[in-house]
Structures are given as structure tokens and as C-alpha cells.
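Re: the 313-residue chain
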Amino acid sequence: MEKTEYGSRDKLLQSCTLCPRECRVDRLSGRKGRCHADGRVKVARAALHMWEEPCISGTEGSGAVFFSGCSLGCVYCQNREISGGQSGLEITVERLAEIFLELQGQNANNINLVTAGHYVPQVCRALELAKGMGLTIPVVYNSSGYEKEQTLKMLEGLVDIYLPDFKYMEPELAGQYSGASDYPETAKKAVREMVRQQPLPCFDERGIMTAGVIVRHLLLPGHVRGAKQIVQYLYETYGDQIYISMMNQYTPVEAVQADPLLGRRVTKREYGRLLDFAEELGVTQGFYQEGKTAMESFIPPFDCSGVLPDDGK
């Protein structure tokens, strides 16, 4: 392994407790944690992304950096190609900072860190480097919601927009689908910390978000009741401090084809019930999806585009 000098934050990887799994693996020695990653940053794609919420992507696109690995591991994961850590290229922190600046040079509306929780020490260092070299666009932290408060605190002052999922309100369901029965309480604490850091949504003259929190919920087939509980909790707890994004784009992957619920798509009626409920609650700061979004592909090719200088050419 190439010798690398590590700072104090990186030493947290020696007995890693960055995520709620707290597997305490020495990732600096080359061992992989529950996130399927060792101490080296691995990125599967860095490019303009058009399929986020309108205030994130806009017409120019979001500068999405897709990190390999994931600490949650949902059975229905749409990004299984990278969440298991198989795809991607290992890069230095310095190269990661360069990528941020290159995306800014492509007129990205923001830097979108997709599933970066297991690389927070390295990401912090890369952001500090990039900001010192002229990075000025907002930074988005795009997350599963399965985050530790202490780890999120490391990002304070570096992240402008938090874009977490809130997947489950029932511990049993979280245990069944993601092996994380602690997910509901963990996500509640994570969102609370995110809102503490970014308590009010802000937008520029184009309607592009510059600061704030958007909490996403992907409606799962057969689970409208749980989705309603999540929307109600978020609205009653935070009101207009946050935006709530309700998504119907769930697409069954091969691993769950035999499951009586996860093996099918969300019906129009199921999604309509969730949207009607949100409207009855009084939710006005929200996003919903129109048309045949479940039939569309929101998954880009994880072909390492933009990861190497000059796209490897």
C-alpha cells in the first residue's frame, strides 16, 4: 500500500466508529469495515447529475460525487453496484479536492457528496483544500440518514445543504430490510443535528438552494402507513424549517424479486394516499414526483467518469 500521512481526524479510522455500526475495524491498515471500505477514498463517478430535486439540480446539474461503499446496506438498494464497494477507483484526498474544483468549473450548482459518511475525515480535508483553492459553490451532503451526530459535527461549516433519507419509522422494518433496527432513532438524531447546523432554507435568485435541509422518503410498496408516520413526524417536529421530498421511484432489483411487497413497484393509489395525507397535514414545503418516474432510470453509469484527471484521457 502506498504510504500516506494521516491527520488527527483520519486516525478515527484506526478503530472506526464513524457510523452507527461502530465496527472498530482498523481501516488504515487496509482492512474493510461494515461499509466495505478501507482507509483509501474510492469514487465511482464524478459528473453533473440532473435527477435531484429541482432546487438542487436546476438546469445546470448537481456536481455529484458517488462514493463507493455504504454503512447501511438495504436489501433493495438501487446502487448495489457501488454500495458493496466493488466499483470505483481509489484516489488521494488531493485528487478529491481537484474533482470538486473541476465540477465547479463545469458550472455545477453545488458539490453533491453521495454516500460519503464512511469517508468524512478525508472529505473534510478535501473540502478544506478545495475551499482554500477557490471552491465557492454550496456543498450538499447526500445521505442514507444512518449517521452519528458526532460524525456530522465534523462537517459543520463545510456543508451547506443536508439531503438525508428518512427510510423507516418502525425498528422491525429497519431490521428486516437494512439490518439496522436502530435506524429510526438514529435518523431522528441525525436530522436534528443537520437542522441545528442549517436551521433555515435559503435560495438564490434562480431558486437554487444555497443552505438548508431536505429530508427524503422513498415510498416502499405496501408501506404507506410507515411513510405517513415519517411525514407526520418530520412536519410536526420541524415545520417549515425543512423541505420534505416524497419519492415514488422505487424499482425492484433482482435480489428482492421474490418478495411479495418489494418485488413490485409502488402503485399510483399508494403514492396518492401519501401525497393526500401530506396535504391534509399542511405540508407546503415539499417535493413530489410526477409521471412515470418509477419507470425511469435515475441511476447513472458508475463508469468512473470524472474520477481521473481529464476523465482518464
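The chain has nine helices and ten strands.
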